[in-house]
Amino acid sequence: MTNVISIWGKGGVGKTTCAASIAVRLSTMGLKTLILTNDPMPSLSDIFKKEVGITPTTISEPNLYAMAIDDKNTVRLWKEKYGNEVYEVISSFLPVDESIIDYVASAPLIGEEFILALLKEIKESNEFDVIVWDTAPAGGSLKLIKLEKMFYEHLGAAAKLYLSVKSTFQKLIRRKKRDPLTLIESWKGLANEILEMVCKEDFHVYIVTIAEWLGFAETLRILDNFNEFNIKPYGLIINRILRKNDDCNCTLCLRSAEINERYLKKFYDVLGNELNIYEVPFIGEEIYGLNTLLSFSEHLKSLIDFEAKKIVL
């Protein structure tokens, strides 16, 4: 069974660095690991110093692989996987040609909706022990979950509408393929399975944030959204923490340390009883390449050991 570790957070907090370092460490522990990102910035290709594409790319033998999916590729993959089904449904009602697939594929959020279906497909293939999902910045990724719920509810209404006008349409249809109701119900089932997937015990959610006002406020918003869908995060990673006893005593560092320590206390006061909190200090160097990622992962050792134990069990 493949576990999923999903890493969430606002843009610019070090989410991809945390995800990549977790993936690298798990792979060195003998677990076949895939890191999958739909966050366009920063690039896994830059972090690993190796071109990462839309199929699993070997980063280091035998256990570490990476995939990067952008908006353009998700739309193309969606067309390849679902385009013919969409054409079957629409052409059973209306005299349209296959260009309708391109029109539907260009609809807002089609690419975003597909990423969860792709994640589910890879998970159920059991090709990997663990998938580390580096999500898009919080607003975009939370939109995926909301979209799936809306899609599920919309398909229920679509089925009712189809049944109410079925007899009328059958008089007009010249070319009957599969019953559209069959396809609608299969899509509805997929949407429901995706919603169930993100709430299961083998789908673990971590939020990455920083100890500042914007990070604190965004974390609370993310948690509110998770509560709406009964998603229970496993922990909170507070990144880039400066403290007053660190090496630099310049005015800027002292002021930043004061802010960090104030909001660190606030995180513990508000969320300490609800979430495991993992502290990562400010690292005064760029994090890229396997060696620096492995070194960075030392700050998340307790989280990674917990996850490795869960996966083995």
Short summary of the structure?
This protein has 313 residues and is α/β, with parallel strands linked by helices. Helix content is 56%, strand content 15%. About 4% of the residues have low confidence.
Provide an overview of this structure.
- The model is unreliable at 161-166 and 171-175 (pLDDT under 50).
- This protein is α/β, with parallel strands linked by helices.
- The chain has helices spanning 15-28, 44-48, 71-93, 99-105, 110-125, 138-172, 180-197, 213-228, 251-271, 290-296, 301-312, and strands at residues 3-8, 33-37, 57-60, 64-68, 130-134, 203-210, 235-241, 276-281.
- Helix 1 crosses helix 10 (290-296) and helix 3 crosses helix 4.
- It has eleven helices and eight strands.
- Strands 3-4-2-5-1-6-7-8 form an eight-stranded mixed sheet, with helices on both faces.
- It has a single domain (3-74, 107-312), classed as Rossmann fold (3-Layer(aba) Sandwich).
Q: For this structure, what is the CATH homologous superfamily? A: P-loop containing nucleotide triphosphate hydrolases
Arithmetic mean of pLDDT: 82
Quaternary status: single chain
Count structural domains.
Answer: 1
Total DSSP E strands: 8
How many helices? The count is 11
Tell me the span between the first and last alpha carbons: 10 Å
Low-confidence stretches: 161-166, 171-175
Structural class: alpha/beta
What is the strand content?
Answer: 5-15%
CATH class: Alpha Beta
Q: How many whole angstroms does the radius of gyration measure?
A: 22 Å
Helices and strands, in order, run as: EHEHEEHHHEHHEHEHEHH
